[in-house]
Fold these 3 entries.
Entry 1:
Amino acid sequence: MDGIHDMGGMDGFGRVEREANEPVFHADWERRMLALSLAVPFAVPYSDDHLRREIERIPPADYLRSSYYEKWLIALESLMKERGIIPGGTVTLPVTPGAPIEAEAVADAIKGGFPTRRDDKEATARFVVGARVRARNIHPKHHTRLPRYVRGHEGVIHTDLGVFGFPDWNSEGKGHKPQHCYTVRFSQQILWGREAPAGDSLYVDLWEDYLEPA
Amino acid sequence: MSADGKDPKQDHHHDHDHDAEEKGLALRVKTLETLLVEKGLVDPAALDRFVEEYETRIGPKNGARVVARAWTDPAFKQRLLTDATAAIRELGLSGLQGENMVAVENTERVHNVIVCTLCSCYPWPVLGLPPVWYKSAAYRSRVVKEPRGVLQEFGLEIPPGTEVRVWDSSAEIRYMVLPRRPAGTDNLSEAALAALVTRDGMVGTAAV
């Protein structure tokens, strides 16, 4: 969706404010919020695509006013409500929860991660490295990982990253639609006009469904 | 304090509201945790362990080891630049938000900088959790469009002849920058070199 979260290229947010010797967390509730977000999926599965979809649904004014972990809180609450885990809202995705992760398993679970790359045999690549492509000018109402600032612009396939599930479908519960994801190189002048330095470039990772031959 | 020496709190006229808001958030998180614990879906001891890992073990010191190794071992550097996930795993580092890693090398001709414009994707196994500025609207909106201006604010002047490459990590790859090894460090040990490497150097907002 064309939401406030899709910030690349917007003006008006001012200088980048930095905090010297910034702590990892600024409050104890932030610690608990991070830990909850990482622990809950072991018992009540959801993916980053689902979490991001919920964050992107936060109304723009609230999104800008909320801190990072506050957005996580809002998103986790809605995910738990729609799964019928906590009261409130409409249960649209009822689940039978599994067992919680045990303390002893945490370090290994972090090290193992949640691999998202799929078998390359699941999809054939439509584009080869060096091919000229255009980011499609599409405006889905649902979650997407195609930033607005590249839409309609021409770039070059820099790397074929292999096969991954398609977030636009996964976040909607429509399946994984495995497909190749590519690093695409765009010239800064193509994206931002003649005032951008001629040699500078931007690289962004885009799923095949976001691209068409140029 | 912010980078320009201004304390953001001084500009903030709503400290009282802010405190009330923080209390409200703390209560909401506590309520959610309590509900999930009562239902047997999370174990508070496991939550403590997650916090401990990210507060004490997983942070930019890990990435600094990767950089120092690349500076001192050309074969490792080659492996890092061709398959960063595997090379980083050689140092015992892997996992959440680093399942698919790519390392991009700064040279005399190229300067790289990392962002996630859509949320705040960041290579956790090597850099830990991202700082607030990396997640800020100002950084996410501006660094893709005016990277040289943003880097200047960080105190980093990129010469006109050097290509700036911005990497918007909006999909499944998490990026780290391999900074240039500073001059005059030929005699330093790998550990001493690692001590020179900063978080910002590996994001691309500092030279090292």
Entry 2:
Amino acid sequence: MDSALIPEGAKRCPFPVFAAGIAIVGVVVLWGVYAMGLCWLKGLNQTNMNDYYGFALWIWADLAVIAIGGGAFFTGLLRYVFGIDELKNIINLTVVIGFICYSSALLILAIDIGQPLRGWFIFWHANVHSMLTEVAFCLSLYFSVLTIEFIPLILENRQVDKVPFFHNLGHNMHGVMAIFAATGAFLSCFHQGSLGGVAGVMYARPFAYREGLLVWPWTFFLFTWSAAAYGPCFTLTVLKMFEGITKKKLVKDNVVHLLAKISGWMIFTYIIAKIIDTIYWATVTAPSQGFKLMDFYSDNAFYGIWILILEIVICGIVPAIILTKKSFRENSRLLLIAVVLGTLGVCLNRWVMVLQIMAVPVMSFDTWALYFPSWQEIATTVLPVAYGIILIALAYRYLPVFPQEKELNAD
Amino acid sequence: MKVDRRSFLGLGLGAAAGVAVTPATWKLMDDSSIWTQNWPWTPVPPAGEATYDNTVCSLCPGNCGIMVRKIDGRPVKIEGRSDYPVNAGGVCLHGISAIQYLYDPSRIKAPLKRENDTFVEITWDEALDMVAERLTEIRASGSADKIACVTDQTKGTIPGLFARFLKATGSNNVYAMDTMEKTWEITLEKIHGGRSSAGFDLENSDFVLSFGAGLIEGWGSPVKNFKINSSRKERGSTLVQVEPRLSNTAANADVWIAAKPGTEADLALGIAGVIIKESLFNSAFVTASGKGFQELAAVLGKNYSPEAVAQTTGVKAAKIIEIARDFARSSAPIAIAGRGRGMSAGSVREFSAVHLLNCIVGNINTKGGVWTLAAQDYEKWPAVEMDDLATAAFEQAPLDSAGSMAGLFTNAGKEKNIEALLIHQANPCFALGDAGSVTEAVKKIPFVVSFSSVMDETTQEADVILPGHMLLERLEDRPSGAGVAQRVTGLSRPVIEPLFNTKNPGDTLLELARKMEGTIGASFPWESYEECLEAVTGDLWAELSDQGYAAETATPPGGGVKVDFSFIVKSQAPVEMEGEAKDFPLVLVPVDNVRISAGSLISSPFAIKTVSDNVLKGKDLLVEINPETARANKLSHGDLAVIETPKGKATVRVNLFEGIMPGVVAMAKGLGHVLDNNKYVGGKGVNINELMGPIVDPVSGLDAAWGIRARLSRA
Amino acid sequence: MKQDNHGKNHKYGMVIDLDKCTGCGSCMVACMSENNVPFKEDETRKKDSITWMRVYKLTNGKPFPETEICYMPRPCMHCGGKGDHGHSPCVSVCPAVATDYDHSTGIVSQIYTRCFGCRYCMGACPYHVRYFNWWDPKWPEGMENYLSPDVSPRMRGVVEKCSFCFHRYQQAKDRAYVEEREEIEEQEYQTACTQACPAGAITFGDLNNPDHAVHQMVKPDPHACGKPRNPKAFRLLERLETNPKVYYISERDWVRKAGDNYLEGEWEKVKNNHDKGHE
């Protein structure tokens, strides 16, 4: 039915099956869109956020998708700037994931603000001292870069490519992609960092506050580093999911192992930095403000020290060991465990830096604030996931996302 | 034109580029943000010239001077009047909220009559005719003495007009809420002889021993007492608070003595015993003025030794002795009674035991002591004209011999029937103990007329409503009371034209009297309430109308006082709580929360907003218990629980507070209103008066209930 | 001018005597009434109840009958931020300059029409003085007539907070200008809560002006960002270097201790230091 659009030589499931799948996910999208509409029309009272929880579930989702979308900029950097050529076989996937993640992030921000129609004030009346201003500028610029990176892939669609203009355009864009990749990497470094800075600069919130270098708190660097380190984990997780669902091998092992190895060493170095940061914070920064480490992890029903251990040990040290050791990462089951743990780890880090910050009491007579999101929040948080699934499914079906697919599946 | 894919895409791109370049996009973006800044549903208060009007707050007996800030004649804010002798600039949250009372959603906008279960709007003429005809009928049937009237207080010309109206019709059934003021009057009469009301010169006292009086919970004249309390440190004055729970007053006091609830009289007698035993009393005063002192000393020595009292009250004997010595050795000690706000009567035994302390240190009618104030006499009323009907009926015994409002409705529910009830600024169906039975009693009254401005629980039972002006719309004199030593009469003045079709109750009564003709009409010769006020206040009017108040200098009444100590010996039976300890192991006590108004005044949305979530959460009221009590009853903080008393039961939540005596359950007064139109205040919490009943004091006949036995279990 | 500060900058601040505060709530209602603060049906969810001035109830945590309580009114602290340069936690993070530090008064402003509701400032503020308008403000029919034109009602979706009744400052300045005066008197500019407090627990004035009561009460140390030199005075969370302009006074040790967070043993040292004073 839609075979004319499907990349040459690729095998795809029958259209009705595909359409049914899309329809099911589409229902979730509609649910999310309905909730989004409620938030826009009736206001943020549709959420369970409150004056203690000004940032809540979807801001965590926002930071998390940006972190796991970090695979795009980092792989782009490796491929185009450092010239690691093998990665061209997975770069398309990272770009699609990045595009999905960043468009989702922007959508979430548009729902999150109390006055969406004034959202552009962040550019017009920008306060250059605010980390959020930096986030907004870099995020939107980087999204433009991602769009530009995504266009050549779209142009490679069998039918589009037939138009000479688009063919040439695509070709030429490929030629200059290195510049965009470099720009993207630069922008991305900054806004990943500034997202970390959002929490780190809150010097009156001892749980979040970090000292740092010049105007940048340590979380600035940790966020960039962790996005670069864990982003590829998510890329590989998605790849493994694809391969599982399609029951096909899509990227050669050497490429996967290379990316896994790089990710492993990144996580390894990151987690050392994170441990040093945590120790310094727990023994110097927080005590100087009158807090001991366990103040942040006790006297409440949810946040125990387990969350720190889970983040650093289980989702940090463990994937780092698996991915850095050749025999481990080449074991496909261990590899899968590592990339999933890594993805969880970075999401958990963002959770802590968004939600736990709000929960920890600062005034001695204040109490822990715990919060549970409303269905509207959950729906709008699930929305990007569903949207992502649809977009990535469309991309896979109609675009040559995996250059090695044909070769690997030639029968 | 054929649109192929290429030109289609071209057009698309072109359009996108066009949209980006055209100023329309940017203009629309800007416009939409401007729209969000001027949403038509967000009010924009009109600007205008700012002016201030002075008036006097009449929401409680405190009578503070207030200033109303107006913009183009529209009241926008209430502030304290800084040159006013009572409050000197301060103002309580309820006073500030008068601005909300003005526009209260439950205000009555026009005269109403009951038709089956609903109210129907009628004209003033119709309404007044209905009332006049009905009252005339009742009079004609020889039941003039079965007409009753309840008002918020007895002083001032509006309550005066009500009393006059009743007298002219032939009824001596005028009642006001049973308050500590009444009990103090009876106590002073029993001990000193003669009628006088109590004034407490707290600002000149250097040692205040308060038996549960919530000096900063709104006792007496709230703002005045806030100020007095606040200057305590500078004045070197000590406050000792006796109370089973750490109230705000207890927390602010220098010493908090947690005596078992209901044992205040015993503690006072124990302290007196120590003072007498150690000869710390004012023997010159006692010898010169006292009668029966020796007998008293003997009784106290025998029955009220510190050890015995320690047993009863739970206060250590050493503490009792220490307080006694500190009290007696102060230069101007004063002991005060009247629980919480003092809006409940309390037992005469307790008041006289407390007042005994003032008597033995001789601090009566002295600086910093208790003053026996003669009745205020600025009101000069012409004699009431009474026809034979009225004269005969007026001779009949009142429906409650003690003049107790609680007694009135207890009786009304029994044998003596009230034929008609006039209600002015009182809400007995909410504010009296055993409110459920009171409501039943009111329902049985054939004809109920309310003069209320808002639809409260009692007004909902009315047959005719003659709605009154609200505070800011209304003229009224406000004589001082509430235990204030310095007398200040204030003038409440309208600062705005009435918002609705309401009348000053004074005017309503004048018109009603005229409609009833004869001697009744003749007893009300004034054209309007304003004219009446001017005539009745006489010499005071010039000062009142000129500066808004008339203040007397604060000097203790001259002339000696006699003290009859034998009365104290006689009145020894304590007022017991209802219920058996074996069924109801806990003690429920009502608590006045300064941010919640109890009595006839319903809290404002502002006030309710300030109430802690440990008192009110959602629609649930939280009762306060000690963690120990909670453990014993297997409850934890926030749990839903059922509180049960011999009078009724209610579902509440539990608030754990270390500062309350184990075994005691405290519950805020003033919640649990049923107000159909006011969702900000109505339907929240439980009315404690549904759980507590009145207990008639054997001496005064007033309601002396201070608590009730209760049990608490998980819901 | 005999002021020892540089230039003519004011630094408006508040001193609250916690031993006088009775928890009566007048300040809260005076503030709501002055500043058109809306109310809704259920205000018992205190985490979304807009109270520019909020009175906290603190307890010493001891069992009956050793229990003590203290009421602590908490307006916006109008933090000077680290080094007292105006980088208050909230101002420094606002992406759209919707909240700003006025160096001539020390007041942290909030422009409702500029705010687009990102709530970053709320996260940054440890005192919870910032409130978001989760709902459209609505008054029962007719009640919008009592709204004051001095302070505009806020639309849904923006953050609001205590302004130290800045409109009153402007009105006082206007009056002074008309009367051709340079400066306004201490009594000419007072916040609504200060004025209403029946216990006289709140004092307001210019911390830079040695003639003003607030200055005399706390004796702010100009070399330590205004840290109080009165040993009984303290600021909330002093250790975070937010440099609030709201000071509290209490004779009670446990109350002063509750003003900040201390590790084991630290309070004893601080307390002793305080008692020595450092004039």
Entry 3:
Amino acid sequence: MASRSSPRKQVRRSAALLHESFLRHRNWRWAKIASALCLVLILIYAFDNPVPRPEGDTVYGYTLGTIGFALILWLTALGIRKRRMSPGVWSLKAWTSAHVWLGLSLIVIGTLHTGFHFGWNVHTLAYALMMLVIASGLFGIGVYAALPSKLSENRGELTETQMLEGLRSLDRQLHSAAQPLGPRAAALIQASLDEDAFGGGLRARLRSGALENATTEAEHGLREMKGEIPPDAMERLKALLGQKHSLVAQLRRHLRLRAILEIWLYVHVPTTIALIAALIAHVVSVFFYW
Amino acid sequence: MAFLIHAVSASATGREIRRSRRVEGERVSIGRDPGSDIVLTDLEVTLEHATLVQTGPHRLIVRSLKGVPFTVDGRSTQEAEVDARAGAEVRIAGFRLEIAWDEAEQAIGVTVERFGAVAASAADEERDERQLFTLAGVAPSRRLMAWGGALLVLLLFLAWPIASYVNAGHKTLTAEQMAAGTAGFHGDRSWSAGPLSSAHAGLTNDCTACHAKAFVSVRDESCKTCHTTVHDHADPEKLRVALAPDTIGGKLSLAVAHAFNRPAGRCVDCHTEHKGNDTRIAVPNQKFCADCHADLKEKLPETKLGDTKDFGSGHPEFQPAILIKPGDQPIFQRTSLDAHPKQETGLIFPHDLHLSATNGVARMAQALGQVKSGGLDCAGCHTPNRNGAGFLPVTMEKDCQSCHSLAFGRRDGQIRTLRHGEVDQAIAQVRDFYGAGGGTPVQPLAGYMRKRPGDFAAAQVASLQGISGTAGQAIRAMFAPDGTCADCHRITGPSRPGALDYKIAAVTLPDHYFVNGWFDHRAHTTEDCASCHAAPKSKDARDVLIPGIANCRTCHVGENGGGIAKKAQVASGCAMCHVYHKDDRRAATAANREEKRKFTQPSATTSVRNSE
């Protein structure tokens, strides 16, 4: 086609490709496929009229269940695919795009499979786990869309290694600058040195807001001990503590963003494995008490 | 007296740097103060922290100056005596002081080395930097969570239910055990696909009551443990043939069902469970019936049933059970109304005569006070039964006698009445009456001129006085075509001229015409009887007054209208008139379900030639 060879178009196309996220891969190809699939399945559900009611144990119910189970296994395979170099035609981006959109279509497939009947049983457990996996996946997409820019904004020009090196350097300087201090002041500086910027567990990582930490306490403490400390040492320590304070705050923000960026996988992946276990129990139970 | 102090530190490249210094004297100071003999650059160390004091050739005391404890060979103390030849390790804050006797220098050697990191950030160097920024250190491992979660799910929802099944011991519960239910929670409850119907709620905890064998679908035997009297809809073999689908999809689904060990035609195919309290097949979808009955003739050529798929658009004409042989052992045969069947009930009974509003009957009814104006109505003779769905049998005593009197004479002030229903007794009564000298006939046994039937006697006696004759004449008159008996009954005889062995045809009144259908009159009280039953125009007692299907279709349009639009559209699926288990007609209407009356079948149902 003539239009295809038009240079302007080609430029636009390549520009689009450059900025194309995995969600809109190939002009929303997988979004379209998944939507079409859902639409067809909903239409069949609407016109299917099983007796006494639509549920997993009708012909259509079994069909949906089989499609759903196969799809879940395939979606799980992304974890394997990610760890392998791509030998075939499927790029990781295409695979991820399909993973997201077909994964979302499971909301329709799974719900139609239930026929909107739920209870306290292994069947609904599998459904609930599936929805949890999907919800965590959605959360993951959300944070991947929003956080990387914030992360890079917070980090400035620093790499993680540079942040760490800066902290170590400040600590070393603090340590040597504090050598002449008396025990009370030294203890304040020591507390700042002892405090692990990476510590505090999962909740501390995810918690937002400025932290009251040993470094800020040392800043306050030294100010109160004005008379006991030689002025030049005081000046140097104040400067060092101030630098450390802002670096730690930056590092904690960085850690928090990275934690949010990562935490959904701690739900998504283990829940997926539990979901597969629940699906095995669900399928076995159906045929066991047939 | 001397100390030999070795300071060990690491270069930036990790190489060990060792600087040694000899301190003469018997006392060495330790502290952060740069003037100390041993300078420990650690903020936990005070400026003047401790001293080493030599007390003998190889002995020394380590003493804390500010009350800050240190450890000697792992024990925390503030003062300790050490034999340098035996050696000791003293730890102060992040520093290790190894004390050993130096034989060559004849001095107490003290090797000072830092073992701890200066700051937490420096300690991070030992950690993998790539892991440091991730959640790996602060959250449990994803792998562990995944396997743990999966294992937990499999234990709770696979292993436990299977254990419950194994523990149940595969025993078949008795009906009593099923009714009682088992106490306690069983692991296999988590497999339940939904609540059981209320009738089976007691079995909620006993999955194995129905699911008797693993991987074997629920079989009818389980149902029959309790449901011992339910009849088959049809011969199971015929049912199997009729059920066989002829579409590709149907055949495929049947093949799949077979492959998965789910034979078709089981009770649970229709009586599905685990669907909640009110989801049993009470009123099945019409397609459920039409699957077999739409083309039954094709599948079962020998069937006498007509193909049907919808009441409105495809239902054969009714085939009521028509009396074809009256008598003590009557025979009924299902006959289509298309054939305009007649039946000999043994009675001569023109409905039109009785329902006329203007004729003699009507006037008689008025005279007797039975009606104020017009003629008799249906309810005058047909009394609804207790539940109102059907009618009580019509009897002479209750329904006919008030007009059709059987009084025939008066003697000694006593009215003599013919015994009804026993011909020989009646003949004998007349013989006795005349043999004993007669009396006053109250009305002629022939030439039946009922001026005032019912309250007959007094007014009639005068006009009849003087009529006399022999018993034989009276009996002949009684059975003559215009005689008392022949007024209602078909008479045969006598066997030879002059004999008196008259016979009256047996009266057989069917009280239920539809063998497999159920019609509830109560549901039709908005209608007149005559809007369905053509009684007012029936001149012949042999008429079958069951209305045909066209009559029903004026309102009943089938399940979905069937393409016919009528004045009062009543959606009418198969189940409105039919029930699946044919002995359970009571279930056919909600009204009947409420009232567990005993259903009275036609007296001769046993000999109905059922075409099924």
